[in-house]
UniProtKB/TrEMBL annotation:
SUPFAM superfamilies to which the protein is assigned, alphabetical: (Trans)glycosidases
Protein name: Alpha-L-fucosidase
Catalysed reactions listed for this entry: an alpha-L-fucoside + H2O = L-fucose + an alcohol; a neolactoside IV(2)-alpha-Fuc-nLc4Cer(d18:1(4E)) + H2O = a neolactoside nLc4Cer(d18:1(4E)) + L-fucose; a neolactoside IV(2)-alpha-Fuc-nLc4Cer(d18:0) + H2O = a neolactoside nLc4Cer(d18:0) + L-fucose
Function per UniProt: Alpha-L-fucosidase is responsible for hydrolyzing the alpha-1,6-linked fucose joined to the reducing-end N-acetylglucosamine of the carbohydrate moieties of glycoproteins.
Keywords noted in UniProt: Glycoprotein, Glycosidase, Hydrolase, Signal
Keyword ATP-binding found: no
GO molecular function: alpha-L-fucosidase activity
Marked site (May be important for catalysis) residue numbers: 284
Length: 456
């Protein structure tokens, strides 16, 4: 695992070893100079988990409360009028958030089976309900109402028994209807009652209690980073916190910081640039195309297929990013079978093709200019170029236009199968002859990887 705190210099003086460590100042220039911990870039795949009181109505979106009471969108108003009595409030959903079927070990086993290397749990979404017994969220947290359990602790404890997974925690800076935030907003954020008494204390509490290795910030409410004291908090996180050497952060630390400041960039939900970026980035995306939280009204066509998920993973990694794939559990703590199927099928693919994903780097070409839907990664440990084709060729061969090959040195193998025959093509590159395989002989069912050694 790479040391992320800073570059460290060891000096020998009078037989004593000293460590001179860079300290980060509360400025974006200093904060942005911190290297990304190596484990994160090697991981490539994470699981996002959106869970909260919004999982009770489980209708439309995890933004249910805002769409119902904030924007008063008609489908949400009609849903409440039809199904709940007059005077029913959003807070009345909280006792129904029961989590009686939540089994942290079962969740962790499922996430590990997907091939993911880290998870990110929504400890608090914009509704303000915390999944741990926060001292700053009296009677609006999972210990005081609903499950009456510390759900963050249960998942963190189960995850740490699986050494292959890193713990990540999501935290929303703002809350839609918190009176202190609304007062600050009315004052055009010239006052900071909310961050100093609620949001920042929660962040310190999360770090000290659970020691996450990913801190996924979100929800600035239109307030600038100075209002949130983001650089001050991050300087503490990188200098003093118990996870200062391993923690990774994103870029959502106030209005104008996204895709500009922080750790890795997210830029926008479901971000997919299609080309190599100079800065480390992450694509957070949902299996349910329309919502991050669980929806009872979701139809089959609303879910991404396994093939579509693998396509997103391949394109993201080829362009230097990580994929954070979201599932939405039910109010009672279940991850429904369609999510489980997608995760386990993704894991089956990763068992064959993970060599072309984990610990790879972007190659000089991201996708092939001759054959469409063919993406490249590079494995420095194997000194191999990986060409991942999203479709099996129908004519028995596939042309790779980007690699430079040598007849005496280059070898081509199909991951999960064996060495393949190839020949150079006049325009440059090579033609690889694919084997004739029955469905049962195929190494995997979606996207196939050619491993090239001795190529440049």
């Amino acid at each position: 695992m790479a040391v992320a705190h800073s570059l460290r210099f060891v000096v020998l003086l009078l037989g004593v070893t000293y460590c001179i460590c860079k300290r980060y100042e509360p400025t974006w220039e200093s904060i942005d100079s911190r290297p990304i911990p190596g484990w994160y870039d090697e991981a490539k795949l994470g699981i996002f988990i959106h869970w909260g009181v919004f999982s009770v109505p489980s209708f439309g979106s995890e933004w249910f409360w805002w769409y119902w009471q904030g924007r008063k969108l008609q489908p949400y108003v009609d849903f409440m009028n039809k199904n709940y009595p007059p005077g029913f409030t959003y807070a009345d959903f909280a006792p129904m958030f029961t989590a009686e079927f939540f089994d942290a070990k079962q969740w962790v086993d499922m996430f590990a089976s997907s091939g993911a290397k880290y998870i990110v749990l929504t400890t608090k979404h914009h509704e303000g309900f915390t999944l741990w017994g926060s001292k700053y969220s009296f009677n609006w947290n999972a210990v005081d109402v609903g499950p009456r359990r510390d759900l963050v602790d249960e998942l963190a404890s189960a995850l740490r028994k699986n050494t292959d997974l890193h713990l990540g925690l999501y935290h929303s800076l703002f809350e839609w209807f918190h009176p202190l935030f609304r007062e600050d907003a009315a004052n055009v954020f010239k006052t900071n009652y909310f961050p100093t008494t609620k949001s920042l204390p929660e962040l310190y509490e999360l770090i000290m209690k659970y020691k996450p290795e990913v801190l996924w910030s979100d929800g600035d409410g239109g307030a600038p980073d100075k209002y949130w004291n983001s650089t001050g908090f991050l300087a503490w996180l990188y200098n003093e916190s118990p996870v200062k050497d391993t923690v990774v952060t994103n870029d959502r630390w106030g209005a104008g910081t996204i895709c500009q400041h922080g750790g890795y960039y997210t830029c926008s939900d479901r971000y997919s640039p299609g080309h190599l970026l100079k800065h480390k980035w992450e694509s957070c995306m949902t299996i349910d195309k329309r919502s991050w939280g669980f929806r009872r009204d979701a139809a089959l066509q609303d879910y991404l297929s396994t093939e579509e998920i693998i396509k997103s993973l391949v394109e993201t990694v080829s362009c230097g990013g990580n994929l954070l794939l979201n599932v939405g559990p039910t109010h009672d703590g279940r991850i429904v079978p369609i999510f489980e199927e997608r995760l386990r099928q993704l894991g089956q693919w990763m068992k064959v093709n993970g060599e072309a994903i984990y610990s790879t780097t972007a190659w000089r070409a991201q996708n092939d200019t001759v054959t469409p839907a063919l993406w490249y990664t590079y494995g420095p440990n194997e000194k191999a170029v990986y060409a991942i084709t999203l479709s099996w060729p129908t004519n028995g061969s596939i042309i790779l236009g980007a690699p430079k090959v040598s007849a005496g040195q280059t070898q081509v193998a199909l991951l999960g199968y064996k060495q393949l025959k190839w020949e150079p093509v006049a325009a440059g590159g090579l033609r690889v002859y694919m084997p004739q395989l029955s469905p049962s002989e195929m190494p995997c069912s979606w996207a196939w990887t050619l491993k090239l050694t001795g190529a440049s």
